[in-house]
Amino acid sequence: MPLKNSILFFLIFTVVLSSCDSNQVFDIYKSVPNKWHKDNVISFNVVPPDSIKPYNLFVNIRNTNNYKYSNLFLIVEMEFPHGKTIKDTLEYKMADPTGKLLGSGLTDIKENKLWYKEQVIFKESGNYKVNIQHAMRENGKVNGVVELEGITDIGFRIENINNN
């Protein structure tokens, strides 16, 4: 193999290896069609791999420049296998004070990895269900935002806790 091809192969191999994510246990996205309706609940079915080990949980959001708010309010509900339910109303910062959207990404799509819960131990065996819906309101208005623009995908992620 010529030297030029060897260097190219090495660079591609390095990029592929560095993109692997050893902390990932569960990471799934679901697309939001055009606008995210306030009654559209995005659900994820999760079967945790371990009932002793703690995990960190995240809500992942992909948004475009059409997202016009500086924050995001979500209602996240976790249904346990034996019927218990925990519901949280969460607020996340989506833009800096100048209005520049936060998140990673070089294009007009930004990805935000948002903390949901830390050190969670899935003590009950069986299927868990995570439901996510938006709870956005505009300042001074009683009714919530019916159709939220600019959100393209909602994700849920479980990570091993890095104990380094």
TrEMBL record:
Domain of life: Bacteria
Keywords in alphabetical order: Lipoprotein
Protein name: Gliding motility lipoprotein GldH
Organism, scientific name: Postechiella marina
